[in-house]
Amino acid sequence: MSEAGSGVRLVVLASGNGSNLQAVLDASASVVAVFSDNGEAFALDRARRSGVPAIAAPFEKGRSRSAYDAALADAVAAYEPDYVLLLGWMRILSAAFLSRFPGMVVNLHPALPGMFPGTRAIGRSLDAYRAGRIEKTGVMTHFVPDEGVDSGPVIAVSDVMILPEDDLASLEARVHETEHRLIVETVMSLVREYERRG
Ligand code: GAR
User: What average pLDDT does range 58-82 have in this prediction?
Assistant: First the structure.
């Protein structure tokens, strides 16, 4: 990806390890801030190491979901993003957040469209394969128009074969490798779209 001249501003929301954030940081200088609902998330360390603002935004008990989402939207908007990337973000965002960034929120999910929404998608794919219900899995990126879980207009998809000898660790490794490639390809396509719009 060309770092120079793209000018696109990406804000990343990540709850955990942040390996997909790392793939984007390695490929592009476009990440302007990283937020996490988990103050201990390694994703925040990865951001700091890259000199990117890392903001912990824990959900405080007793607060309403919409109040949290509205405050998060205010904090994200301060970085003037062109796109908001959900890379291992484990909270469902309500309209209080999404209405502030129409057509701008992109999610990565470790399964094919319509398959295994929510958590533990890779483990559930392996279980389904072993039960003879599926032959392959995959990863996808998609826009997030509403509160649907891991659903919305698809941007990119990549298949991942499941092998008879796979265990969870080997399948996870292949899925993550595929995700790291797909998220960078997706960011490149978003940059092209941003540049086309001028
Ligand atoms: C990734 O596999 C991502 O697709 C998944 O969380 C993982 C985060 O890994 N997201 C979901 O399951 C969303 N439903 P990372 O923190 O190493 O990027």
Answer: 96
